[in-house]
Structure formats: structure tokens, C-alpha cells
Amino acid sequence: MKNFRSLLATPYFTSLVTVALLVVLFAMGSIAYDGFFSVQVVLNLLIDNAFLLVIGIGMTFVILSGGIDLSVGSVLALTTMISAYLLQSWHWHPLLVIVCVLALGGLFGAAMGVLIHFFKLQPFIVTLAGMFLARGLCYLISINSITIDDPLFVTMSQTRLELGLGDAFVSPSVVIAVLMLALAIYLAHYTRFGRAVYAVGGNEQSALLMGLPVGRTKVAIYAFSGFCAALAGVLFSFYMLSGYGLHAQGTELDAIAAVVIGGTLLTGGYGYVAGTLTGVLILGVIQTLIAFDGTLSSWWTKIVIGVLLFVFCLAQRLMSLGAAKAADANGAAAAVKPSVQAA
Amino acid sequence: MSASMNSNLVSNHNTSSDVAANRLRRVLFHPLSRPLGALAVLLLIDFFMIPGFFRIEMKDGHLYGSVIDIVNRAAPLMLAALGMTLVIATRGIDISVGAVVAISGTIAAMLIGGTMVVNNGVPEYVSNIPMGWALAAALGVALLCGAWNGLLVATLGLQPIIATLILMVAGRGLAQLLTDGQIITVYYKPFFYLGSGYLWGLPFSLFIVAGMFVVLALLMRKTALGLFIQSVGINPVASRLAGIRTAALIFFVYIFCSLCAGLAGLMISANIKSADANNAGLLLELDAILAVTLGGTSLAGGKFSLVGSVIGALIIQALTYTIYSLGVPPEVNMVVKSVVVFLVCLSQSPEFRRLRLFKPAGSGH
């Protein structure tokens, strides 16, 4: 029993469970449906969810710091809209457009970070307003969908990068998303910024007393999330070849779900960026399973995601309760010493 | 804010104007003055920009007019905001309101259904099961939803936003599953009364809201419940140690919020004479939270104002109405709403107030 509890308390445990769940889901699909067990199905998971992965990466940092960002889906839509408008109406060079929208996304996030940190506003309400603002700005540009026919975007959309495994291929978006993931893992685990993010999420007061730049870190986190949302928007416009205000509605919830399923604690300070990849893939496998089945309707995706969210939140809660109990037991043992009590 | 006001008053040695200024200050800094002021400004804009805005006519024994229209349309939002107020007062949040609206509307519409039967040349509307039972079933399911949220938040101790996120995602899926993604049309007249009926010349939905408000206000003011809810919001641990049954209270609050949402769902589906599981109540939770914030209730929990939330809901509906009637593209609505939220939040932030008041204090030197 004690061994089991210590296993539960290991940081890798939730990540292992998610990976196991992913394998089980994939195995179920492979047994149930012909043609499910193939490299291309796995790669398609990445191709279809590259944008979600990028958003999830940004969201992971926000949630690690104990905040939340509800604006990402709308920022994605706004990015597709602005790119489409600049490309089609103003005929800007596509690379310039991409740089512009990425900078805009970062600025948008940074502005929300400033409001959250310097005016002590709740992240929930600020990013909620940000969500309304970005969606509204989409409609200010146009209420219709704008098709993108820029050669670079079309190339990015249609290029197939062969992997040398039969005729398996990925899209350039997947490469960008995976590079982003690598960068995020480096940022989170090997830089001063990453350590500050974990420290702020663990306990903001302590982080401040330790002399960490809490304000700068928080603004940077939201700026990073905004940048990721904008990058996801660029990938999404490669994928859809259009800009539309209704794109990616509810993506913020998918992203939060992916992060939670990936094992990051919503209270902040604990989790892995790589876990988000697992979370995104699990969401993708569920969608693929439902698509392969053919008789199940799309709303089953929502129901299954809801159930998964519940199970993972429950598991997280039980885990932290177990940890608290263990800490209590230790505390009781330590309290015998008067010096500790005084501390 | 009061600091600068004091400094202004000290420089003014006339006592009679002191009293007057005190009275003015009490009015100005009453918690409801800001939402009421915002509503007044909106109505003033309407008065000048929209001809005949305040004209109310009597037609077929009903009152007609823009103001009545705004109040009638704001009814579901007011209900949802009332429930949300209590949840926010306990430091919680309920983002499953929209999903509960979809579920309760769907269940009521499916159970009532209704067909027109011609009996001896007289068309009669027949419901699948008696309407009372259908409404009770819909509200019962809403109660279950609330109990689920309450269980997750109060018993398991999940973060409110995530606990209710589960129902927000899965709930709409369940409603779509029930209707198979189709819109269910209702053919049963008595049901429509809930959404578009009139009693003594006023919209019937208004009486539901008023009834709910009076019951709630009495519960909060005449019993200790209001005090308990505030104390839980201000300091949950201290309240528990003081002997308040915190978990039971939080559980009750989520059930009540879902019940309000369920009732709002019935109103919405009665108003559009159908149930649309895909779109009914979409983003209603956000509007409800916005209404509560506009009404002066802090998202940090504690003090709350029911009247404020009702005024907040009216502000949102009046804003929507104004934007539509001014001929501004309705899409601008979202931008305006977000700017309003930013402004309201900033005005509630002590850091921002200090920043703004720094200048007058400096210029006084």
C-alpha cells in the first residue's frame, strides 16, 4: 500500500497514466477498425491538431503559473482574419504578414498580462474580456469568410513532407508545432524563465520574497500564450486557407482540457509541457475513433472529453489529497520538536 | 478614492456645504451608484438617439415599447445573473449555465412536443405529457446538474471553474445527443406563455424574475443565509472554523444557480417556441458573469448585490438594444462589451484607483 502511494506521488505517474491511456485508446481503435493501425493515422493526429498543440503549449505555461487564458481561441480567429485581410486586400508579402500577426498576438497577450499583474485583476475575467474583444475585432474586419489564395500559404497547405516510412507524410505545420514543442520544453525546464514560471505557480508570494521577477514573468507568460495563439492561427490558416471570425470556437476549452489531461495541475506549479502533447493526442484519438466509427455523432466527442476531464480532475484531486495527508503525517511527527513549532 | 475626497472636504471650511457634500458622497459612493449611472447614461443616449424610445403604448391590453422589450428580453439573463451572484459571492464561478439552459430547454421541449388536433373543427393543442410534469422534469434535471457541480466543488474540492467546465463541455453534448442535433419545435400554446405571455399588461417572464428576486432577497435579508454566504466568500476556512457548514452552503449555491439557469432555459425555449441544443444559452454564462461584475459584486467573493446583478443584466440588454437600433453592425457589440468589462474591472481595482488619483493629489500642492 505504501509502495503504491509513493508510486502515486511520483511526478511521472500521471504522465505515465496518460501515455498508457493513449496507447489503450489507439489499441482499441486498431482492433475495432480496419486501417486504423497505420503510421499515417498517427501522423494525421499531428496534422489535424498541430494548431491545438501550439495553443496547448502556451496554455501550459499559463496554467503552470496558476492563471488561465480564455482568449486563445479568439486570438487564433483574429490572426486568421488579419492574415487573410492583409494578404487579400492589401497584398502584403506573406512573410511580413506572418511576422506582423505573431507580434500582434504577443502584444495582445502582454497587454492582458499587464492588466492581470499590475492591476491585480483576475486572469479569468481579463482573458474573458480579451476573448470578446478579439472575436469582435474579427467581425469588424469582415463578417464573412475570406479565402486565402497566396502562393506561399497554398504551398504550406499542400506540401507533403515524406518521412521515408512508406508513403507516410506530415505537413510543414507539424514540423513547426514540433519545433515549438522542443523550444517550450527547453524554456520550461532549462531556463531561468521556466524556473520562475514554476515558482510563481507554486506560490507567488514566496517567489516574490525569493527575489524572482514575478511581474516580468507573468507578463511574459501571457505574451507567450498570445504568441502561441497567433502562431496557431497562422498554422490554422495554412490548414483552412481562409480567415473567418467563427474559426476555432471553443478551442480554449479544448486546450485547457488537453493541458489538464496532460497532467498539469490547475492550481499551478506542477506539470510538464510534454504532457500537453499527450493530452492533445488523446483528444485527437477520440475524434479519430468517432470519425472511424461513422455512426457516432460529433457530440460524442464533447461527452467523452467531459468524462475524461472529470476522471483526470478526480485523479489529480485524490493525488493532492494523498500528498496533503502524507505532509500532515510528517508535520505531526515534526511538531514534536518545539523548534519546528516555533518556525 | 475617499482619501482625495476627504482632502477636498478639509479645504472647504463651510459646515453646511460639508453636510451637503457628505450626503453627496454617500450617494456617489453607494455601491449601486456606478451601475445605475451606467444604465442612466445608456438610457440617455437612447433618449436622444432613438426617437420614441420611452414611448409605451397599450395594444390589445398589453404594454408595448422599447423599454418593455428590453426588460422582457433581459429576463433569462437576469435569472441567470441572480443565481451566478450567489455562486460568485462564495468565491466560485459557474460556467455551465449555458449548457444547463440547453439541457432544460431540450427536455421541456421533448416532453411537451405537442401536436395540433382538430376536434369538431376546433384546433386544439395537445402535449405529449401534462405540461406541469414536463416543466418539473426539466427543472429536476437542472437541479441534478447543480447537484453534480456542487458535489465536485463542495465535496471533492475541485476548482469551481474546472468543475463546471466539465458540465459545460459534456452538458451541451448531452443535450445534442437527446435532440440528435436537430431543432425541436414545440406546438403547444400554454408553454409559450412562459416566454411571451402577458399578465396584467406586463410580460409574464418579468413576474417570474420578480418572484425569484423577492424570494431570494427575503432569504438573504431575513435569514442568516446571506451573512453565511458572505462570510464563506470572505474567508472559507475561518467560516468553517466558526461553525458554518461551508460545504452544505456551497452545495446549495450551485444547485440554486443551476435551477435559475434551468428556469432561464424554459423561458428561452418558450420564447423561440423550440429547443435548439446547439445554440440555446451559448455564452450566457459569460453574460451572466458580466452582469454580476457590472452590478458591483467582486469576483473575489464576499459582498454581493442582487439588485446590482439585475441592473447589470439590464445594462447588457440595453447596450445590445442600443447597438442594434443605432444601426451599428451587431458585431461591434462584442467589442463594446469587452471594453465595458475592461473599464469596470479597472474601476474595481484599487491599484488603478491609486494611479488615477495620484494626479489630482499632486496638482493640489
Radius of gyration of chain A: 21 Å
The portion of residues forming beta strands of chain A comes to under 5%
Shape of chain A: globular
The low-pLDDT segments of chain B are 1-12, 360-365
The largest sheet of chain A is: 2 strands, antiparallel
Number of H- or I-type helical stretches of chain A: 15
Number of domains of chain A: 1
Strand content of chain B: 5-15%
Structural class of chain A: mainly alpha
Number of domains of chain B: 1
**What class would the helix/strand composition of chain B place it in?**
mainly alpha
Biggest interface found: A-B, 45 and 46 residues
Low-confidence stretches of chain A: 334-343
Mean pLDDT of chain A: 84
Return the string of H and E elements of chain A: HHHHHHEHEEHHHHEHHHH
Secondary-structure element pattern of chain B, one letter each: HHHEEHHEEHHEHEEHHHHEHHHH
Averaged pLDDT of chain B: 79
Question: Reading side by side through the largest sheet of chain B, how are the strands ordered?
Answer: 1-2
CATH architecture of chain A: Orthogonal Bundle
How is this structure best described in words?
The complex is a heterodimer of chains A (343) and B (365). Chain A has 343 residues and is mostly helical. Chain A has one domain: ABC transporter involved in vitamin B12 uptake, BtuC (Orthogonal Bundle). Chain A has helices at residues 2-9, 12-32, 39-64, 72-88, 94-118, 123-141, 151-158, 172-190, 192-202, 204-209, 214-240, 251-261, 273-293, 299-334, 338-342, and strands at 146-147, 161-162, 169-170, 242-243. In chain A, strands 1-4 form a two-stranded antiparallel ribbon. A two-stranded antiparallel sheet of chain A has the order 2-3. Chain B is mostly helical and 365 residues long. Chain B has one domain. Chain B contains 16 helices and eight strands. In chain B, the strands form four sheets. Chain B has a two-stranded antiparallel ribbon with strand order 1-2. In chain B, strands 3-4 form a two-stranded antiparallel ribbon. In chain B, helix 3 runs parallel beside helix 14 (306-325). The radius of gyration of chain B is 23 Å and the shape is globular. Mean pLDDT of chain B is 79; it is low at 1-12 and 360-365. Chains A and B meet through helix 6, helix 12 and helix 14 of A and helix 7, helix 13, helix 15 and helix 16 of B.
